[in-house]
């Protein structure tokens, strides 16, 4: 990580929202880096990070921390923090594609309940990567209408240890075997995904603990480990 936008994104992925970050003017810094951490090859994201503002924003901050100026130090620190937050927002927007803007709008719609109350309540349970997967596939759903394919893609990406069966022959149904603990969070996630991507005519069966029996498949035909279909 070298840039403020990079640090902000990684902080969010580690559960620290941008509003909780505090940017400080570095006391000692390299002329070749924007971030000035104590440890150069740092991995842990901390709420406070020192910045070398002269790396890219010399024209803005060249007189901000003149060594001869010892007045209103705390005020200038607060203004510096606010300015870096503003510049980080601009940085992120400059690097965004048109599709990324759409995904932000979709996530806003989800949180405001425009895609249903169930998904609105469930979205905080998904991490940032999972939220991007859901928003991306909703965007593709608007463009392609391929609900079943996008349902399978969403579940597999969020729950990789999943087997999905689609039955068109006898009745329209989807069978899900999820090799995960059937706890409350996982239940909420699966229900929300099905709410958005499952076609109305389809019914579902979800198996958490045991797979249903498949003749000829030894793994699915273990005694005392077969779910009833």
Task: Give the SSE layout.
Elements: H1 4-13, E1 22-25, E2 48-51, H2 58-61, H3 73-94, H4 98-111, H5 117-122, H6 128-144, H7 147-158, E3 162-167, E4 173-178, H8 184-197, E5 203-207, E6 211-212, E7 226-227
Parallel strand pairs: 1-2, 4-5, 6-7
Antiparallel strand pairs: 3-4
What is the overall pLDDT average?
A: 84
Oligomer: single chain
End-to-end Cα distance: 51 Å
Number of beta strands: 7
Major sheet description: 3 strands, mixed
Side by side, the strands of the main sheet go 3-4-5
Task: Briefly note the structural class of the backbone.
Answer: alpha/beta
Portion in beta strands: 5-15%
Tally of individual domains = 2
Question: Would you give an account of this structure?
Answer:
The structure is a single chain. With 229 residues, this protein is of the alpha/beta class. The protein folds into two domains: 4-94, no CATH class; 98-227, no CATH class. The chain is 43% helix and 13% strand. It has eight helices and seven strands. A three-stranded mixed beta sheet has the order 3-4-5, covered by helices on one side. It has a two-stranded parallel sheet with strand order 1-2. Helix 8 (184-197) links the parallel strand 4 and strand 5 (203-207). The longest helix has 22 residues, at 73-94. The chain is elongated and about 80 Å long. 17% of the residues are buried.
Short description:
The chain has eight helices and seven strands; from the N terminus they run αββααααααββαβββ. It has 229 residues and is α/β, with parallel strands linked by helices.
